[in-house]
Amino acid sequence: MSLITIEPRIKRGGIIRDRVAITSNYAAAYAAKDVEVDVVAAYPITPQTPAVEKVAEFIANGELSAEYIPVESEHSALSALIGASAAGARTFTATSSQGLFYMFELLYIASGLRLPIVMALATRAASAPICIHGDYQDLAAVRDSGGWIVMIASSAQEVYDSIIMAYRIAEDSRVLLPVMVSYDGFLMSHTTEPVELYDLDAIRRFAPKKIDRPILDSRRPITMGVMAVPDWYYEIKYQVIDAMHNSMGVIKEVHDEFNKTFGRNYRLIEEYRIDDADYVVITYGGIWGNTKRAVDIARKNGIKAGALKLRLFRPFPTDDLVRIVEGVRAIAVIDRAVSQEHQ
Amino acid sequence: MIIVNPTGCLEVTTTIYPYTSWGVPYIHVAFENAGAVASGIEAAIKALNKNGLLKRNTRVIAIAGDGGTYDIGLQALSGMLERGHGVLYVLYDNEAYMNTGIQRSGGTPKFAKTTTMPAGTVIRGKIQKKKDIMSIVMAHHIPYAATANVAYPPIDLVNKVRKALSYLEEGPAFIHVLAPCPPGWGGFPDEKMIEIARLATETGYFPLYEWDRDRLIINPPSDMYMDKRLRKPLREFVKAQSRWSHVTDEEIKELEKDIEDFLNYLWRLSIGSGVPTPYA
Ligand SMILES: Cc1ncc(C[n+]2csc(CCOP(=O)(O)OP(=O)(O)O)c2C)c(N)n1
Ligand SMILES: [Mg+2]
Q1: Mutation test of ligand 1: which of B75, B90, B97, B130 has the most ligand atoms closer than 8 Å to its C-beta?
Q2: Which atom of ligand 1 is nearest to the CA of B32?
């Protein structure tokens, strides 16, 4: 798919370098390029594949100076990024369903080692039967998998923006946790939308590359991935829980700064016509646009409807959510991840 | 130097928090991914040097057990070798999953008893032969691969490590080191470990050789042991260990035949790759 420039050189205070028509997969790839990742390791799986193909193309064309490791599995993709991140590199990968499941044990290790890895997830149904189409069972499976911050985007622009923010959040010394940015398989991964790309210097200022965390460095040797007896295990894992807890404030801070710098309006939970709503729909991902449309139609029919979108899935913004829905008459939840033991 | 070490005895005995035995940067990630983790570190060093973020001339060495190499880690190892990462991968082969209590691995030799293939009245320990990991590695046509034995450290092992490191600009290097595990092999005191290891080479069971840019060189003293008459009887090696205590004379003969076949295979590879005969 070639890049279509819709309106070249639109400037908003010089902050927008281009306005392009790209898919969410490509938006993920552009974000990885624009934050100048050092190492990418990835394995093909539909519907994510075009994201890493695009990154490979950027590297092949010299638009991104990074090492691309065409690993032999997703297990090795995340393993290689754990190694690369531990050695100080800024890293990126992308995957979907079976690929994410194949990475599973390493999700816990990445967060336990406090590595700021960023991964894009084009969500997809879980086999069997094998199905390449989009639902959120893969994302739901990582609900409790050990310390990844998880964001869910609703547009290609939000994918691009979230990945840029993800590096700032992941690399913050109060956080140092891996971040996953997800979006609907096909519905978003393969749908072309307008996306504003930012000035590279502005991105560099917003998410500067620096190494101010413990890494594998021959001049200052450390041991990573130790064996811990339960007393120490508890202490070390508790720090991950603390970091996850702290990340909520950091994410808000990063949102604020991002909104100010790039002229957006990101919050942990996005609200739509909520102020006087009696009925609220809560959802996430690519159907956010449809949900808002449904609210408008309901309003036209005299129903006081409103909607909420979860942008942050982990840590879960419970307090914000409870505060927003306080006093409404009923809540409908559209969750696109079936749980097999429930009807 | 940065060390990558997958899960196993070496890892659990050297990194018990808050202590560490490692004076160099060290990372353990999981059991099956030493090849992939090492690939990532090697790539990171390249990228950081290129992008000017951290200038280091650091070498990456993976040290992995037989389970983490022959079996669960084979895919990651193959990927690393095929992609040509400049990493030295050292396999320390104690011929079983020792960390979890002596279970069979692809590196366990025939008839040896393990807790998952015990010597019973019907099954006589491991039924299958030891996997030829060196041939698998050599099939990737990496610049350098070698076998070594902890009983021959001062010259052979040290030289091989040195040589392997000097090849890393070209691509990966692999060293397969025989490392007896006294509790796992059984029947001899710890202080006899080196003696047992030496017998492995003296009987032809574990020959020392190098794969140097597609030439197979049989190293001393194994070149001498290509002549069957100069080898020690295999029995001396086998009967010193309780993992083979149930083995009959017939079965030792069978093991001897396998060794003979393997050494002939090595010999053909060596001659075929243009290496002059070590003795005439
Ligand atoms: C995915 C996974 N499966 C199983 C284990 C359990 N396990 C840990 S170490 C080990 C065996 C290690 O054997 P080897 O690589 O030969 O090293 P050794 O302990 O013999 O030195 C096993 C099975 C694990 N840690 N991870
Ligand atoms: Mg072993």
Answers
A1: B97
A2: 1
Distance A236 CA to ligand 1 centre (A): 23
Nearest to B95, CA basis, from B43, B150, B156: B150
**In Å, how far from its chain's centre is CA A193?**
18
Band of residue A8 on the pLDDT scale cut at 50, 70, 90: very low
ipTM of the complex: 0.96
CATH topology of domain A270-342: Rossmann fold (3.40.50)
Determine whether the shortest distance from the Cβ of B225 to ligand 1 is under 6 A: no
Of B258, B237, B251, B254, the C-alpha closest to B119 is: B251
- Tokens 């992008």, residue located: B51
Joined tokens for residue A58: 């950027």
Q: How far is A58 from chain B (nearest CA, A)?
A: 15
Q: Which fold has domain A7-262?
A: Rossmann fold (3.40.50)
DSSP string, A45-82: -TTTHHHHHHHHHHHHTTSS--EEE--SSHHHHHHHHH
Average pLDDT of A219-238?
A: 97
- Global pTM? 0.96
Topology of domain B2-271 in CATH is Rossmann fold (3.40.50)
Close Cβ partners of B180 (under 8 Å, ≥ 6 residues apart): B94, B150, B193, B196, B197, B200
CB of B61 within 8 Å of any CB in chain A?
no
Is A7-262's fold the same as A270-342's? yes
Residue A56 contacts B, CB cutoff 8 Å: no
Q: What is the pLDDT of residue A342?
A: 73
Q: Is the pLDDT of residue B82 over 70?
A: yes
Residue ranges covered by each domain of chain A: 7-262, 270-342
At B201-242, the pLDDT tens digits run: 999 999 999 999 989 999 999 999 999 999 999 999 999 999
What is the per-residue pLDDT for A36? 98
